[in-house]
Amino acid sequence: VNSGGPHERCYDVVIAGASLAGCTAAILLARRGASVALVERRPQLDAYKVACTHFIQASATPTIRRLGLDRAIEAAGGVRNSFELWTRWGWIRPPYGRVHGPQPPYGYSIRRQTLDPLLRRLAVETPGVEAMLGRSVIGLEHGHDWARVRVRASSGREQELRARLAVGADGRDSAVARLARLPARRTVNGRFIYWAYYRRLALPGGTRARFWHLDPDVAYALPNDGGLTLLVVMPALTRLPEFKADRVEAFERLVGGLAEHPPLEDAERDSPLLGQVSVPNARRQPVSPGVALVGDAALACDPLPGVGCGWAMQSAEWLANSVGPSLRGESELERGLAAYAARHRAETAHDFGLIRLLSCAKPPRLSWRLLLAAAAHDEELAARLMAHWQRRVRLVDYLTPGTFARSAAVLGHAGLVRDRRSPRAGNASLVRDSTFP
Ligand SMILES: Cc1cc2nc3c(=O)[nH]c(=O)nc-3n(C[C@H](O)[C@H](O)[C@H](O)COP(=O)(O)OP(=O)(O)OC[C@H]3O[C@@H](n4cnc5c(N)ncnc54)[C@H](O)[C@@H]3O)c2cc1C
Known about the structure:
Distance between the termini: 66 Å
Number of strands: 24
Structural class: alpha+beta
Largest sheet: 8 strands, mixed
Bound molecules: flavin-adenine dinucleotide
Radius of gyration: 23 Å
Helix content: 25-40%
Shape: globular
Strand content: 15-25%
């Protein structure tokens, strides 16, 4: 394959970025017989993404299994995740045992410092993948069925890689997207994020995570590998001055004010408090002739719903499935790229619309409040909401007339039959009085 001179080599695919999306794409394309150059800016095999709270939704579990990564994750202490959600109408707790049997659908919670090296090792050991660590993509020319990618090593040495397809898996500020003139449509996130790891932080549900939907603030407690629990807050931007004044105190105050709050007094913080003030939503057209974008390069979301890691791996699999036959010469590459763009849109477009809306940190719309309030009163609706939240069910398949009809019936029933002074009637009466104007 590598018929070029010392400064020019040929592959089927050149991938920029060896993180979740890039490694997944490299493994799955190489298994389909493609020769892959995997170019990564950072030189260390065990480099990892720090700015991530790594709650990987259940939608990604089938991809993780196909990669053969599930066993490695579990051997490394990764937690099979599930969660319950606090709202002002009460806890939303799916009847995991009764609806799904003893093994409900799960994703994984595993620190990126554990996960990223596992996946990168799997990628570099896959026959057909040539890893080029410590090299950055700095140039790109492309057209139908061809791409020329310029890479530069930290020594300053440059090299040209030729391929039929260049893949941008290089994150939300993708150089490949910029070089291919695929601009991002960005929207501001109305929240910022802070997080820290804790030891000896016991949650009532054991390894079941907790989300608090405080409206507009959000908080999470996420059990992870290494016996660590990650506490995360996403306050509205209006609270930024409070965090700028004393972020540790503001963080602990917010956590301490949560309903059934995690017992910080018995726990020990195991990391500095980390944070990111600007986390905009960004979406790009994921293909151009001879070019495809996967992961955050195509779609970088608000971290609140925790979909980025899952979609990074899943989008890489959608790409491998779509262009695999083309790379074997069974169809034109452009047809494969068009199929990938259509799949990406079908899987993410509606969900991304809702994610963008909720990231404004404005009071949620009536329909969303209706769904949350009803799910707090009805196990079947709780199970449906969770299936969507885990991205096992797309938004369009969750927001059916049946879901709205059942929600309205549940709330009507709760409002009619419950005594307004009982704790649950308190929730229902909110519906009648002010919450649903
Ligand atoms: C604060 C925060 C919290 C988050 N929490 C969650 C969560 O709980 N759950 C969840 O699912 N998602 C979460 N996400 C999103 C998640 O981190 C990303 O969606 C995911 O990492 C995307 O993976 P990726 O492989 O597409 O990109 P990245 O992981 O960003 O990897 C890009 C790779 O490309 C390399 N690279 C960049 N430029 C070049 C270049 N020019 N040449 C070569 N290589 C290059 C980089 O070094 C890097 O290795 C969070 C994000 C943030 C910011």
